[in-house]
Amino acid sequence: MMARALGLAVRGLGTTSPNPMVGAVLASGGRVLAEGHHSRFGGPHAERRLLAALTAGRTRVPSGSVLYLTLEPCTYHGKTPPCVDALIASPIRRAVVAARDPNPIVTGRGLRLLRRAGWEVRSGLMAEEARRLNLPFLLSQRQGRARITLKIASTLDGALADHRGFSRWITGVEARRAVGTMRAAADAIVVGRGTVDTDDPRLRTRAGREKSPSRIVIDSRLAIDPGCRLARVWHAETAGGGPAAPAIGNWVGAPGRGGGIRWIRRPRLIVATSRPSAGRGAAFVRLGWEVWRLPDRSGGVDLLALAGRAAREGLIDLLVEPGPLLAGSFLDQGPVDRIALFLAPKILGGDRGWSARMTPRALSRALLPHPAEAPIRLGGDLLLRLEGPRGRALVPPRRRP
Ligand SMILES: NC(=O)c1ccc[n+]([C@@H]2O[C@H](COP(=O)([O-])OP(=O)(O)OC[C@H]3O[C@@H](n4cnc5c(N)ncnc54)[C@H](OP(=O)(O)O)[C@@H]3O)[C@@H](O)[C@H]2O)c1
Q: Per-residue pLDDT for the chain (401 aa), expressed as one digit of tens each?
């Protein structure tokens, strides 16, 4: 039943962030009575949808029915009233919860309130699966930073591009389709100035506007052309303008019925800079860009500060598509939580390897990526999903943002 609840939770991938994905199943004697999941930012939580399904179906709740929840119920008034109150008012009296609320201020509170109301509550079932499911939420709450996934498409010998800088296309159509899906699940795609200058990428998702991520370019001196193709695609996707504020992550609030707020997806266009030349910022802002002024580190943008700023802005899951320079900085400084390595059966030679710009390490200090799952075949290419030892960060940050 918990596996079923986790499966329901995943349906919110790409549409609940920066809120967590949550699934709920109510079962009695092996039979599912009702279920629900959190499907959209600002929408009803999984518990509320389950309770609504119970009411709509006029379902009787036999004593001993168990509620399986992938995340502890909320106890605070956010965009919706606390779920714990609605649960206590229902006829359910038993719960099994996978993970606690990662917010250090409220963790365990939902479980305590249920117990105080006479519920029998157990926690920790499939906790590791639940932790992985909402890792971006957990990192943003506990470490104040976004999750960082490096997406790398390379040849067998590690090249990201040929000796002229061309990288179209290293991998085949199936791998590129998988990249589109990863982009649609992320809050923002991040690229470096070098890639915009060389490739002028569009960074499309092929998943429609409803799952369109924000775009962030790391460009310490604001040297890119603000009219580059990724900006043009962003303009086309967000055409019609719409309200500009308040914004959380990829969502903007518009006046809704009854004085409430209706949340509409609107990806953001951001340039992250550390040493902007005078006057350049205004040109970007005029064209719809947000300019994030961040600290400098070793002559470039401080990448941990970027991950911290992104989390504060509600962009908690970043897919970084680095060239060799940006990949080298992330591998040196962190944070890197995962690598999605698309390997094409080609050999190019040259000096454009994805780790070529990382500071060399002694064998005893090598980074030790672990496969998160078995390699996946995508046409002629392979996808390796790598993470750090025991599912932790591959390159943890050395300080807090
Ligand atoms: N196969 C793939 O998956 C893939 C993906 C992306 C790119 N590529 C290829 O990679 C090549 C471009 O790579 P690149 O290495 O020249 O550029 P890059 O990694 O895309 O961007 C690097 C630039 O970002 C800016 N930057 C700002 N802060 C930085 C920091 N902390 N660390 C590193 N860079 C920072 C620097 O420019 P400023 O000093 O001006 O700020 C730097 O030159 C192209 O040939 C492209 O085709 C391949």
A: 999 999 999 999 989 999 999 999 999 999 999 999 999 998 899 999 999 999 999 999 999 999 999 999 998 877 677 899 999 999 999 999 999 999 887 899 999 999 999 999 999 999 999 999 999 999 999 999 999 999 999 999 999 999 998 888 999 999 999 999 999 999 999 999 999 999 999 998 877 777 889 999 999 999 999 999 999 999 988 876 655 667 899 998 888 877 778 888 889 999 999 998 878 889 999 999 999 999 999 999 999 999 999 999 999 999 999 999 999 999 999 999 999 999 999 999 988 899 999 999 999 999 999 999 999 999 999 999 999 988 899 999 988 78
Q: What is the DSSP-derived secondary structure letter of residue 208?
A: -
Residue 84 to residue 322: CA distance in whole angstroms: 43
For ligand 1, whether the C-beta of 84 sits within 6 Å is no
Of the candidates 168, 229, 165, 173, which has an alpha carbon nearest to the alpha carbon of residue 196? 229
206 vs 155: CA distance, rounded Å = 24
pTM: 0.95
Please indicate whether residue 167, judged by its CB atom, sits closer than 6 Å to ligand 1. Answer: yes
- Could you tell me the distance, in angstroms and rounded to a whole number, from the CA of residue 213 to the centre of ligand 1? 20
15-37 exposure pattern, b = at least 16 Cβ within 10 A, e = fewer = bbbbbbbbbbbbbbeeeebbbbb
Pocket test for ligand 1, best of 183, 195, 384 (most atoms within 8 A of CB): 195
Residue 312, both tokens: 């504060």
Rounded distance from Cα 276 to ligand 1 centre (Å): 17
Residue 261 Cβ contacting ligand 1 at under 6 Å: no
CB-ligand 1 contact for 152 (6 Å cutoff): yes
Asked about 47 being catalytic, the answer comes back as yes
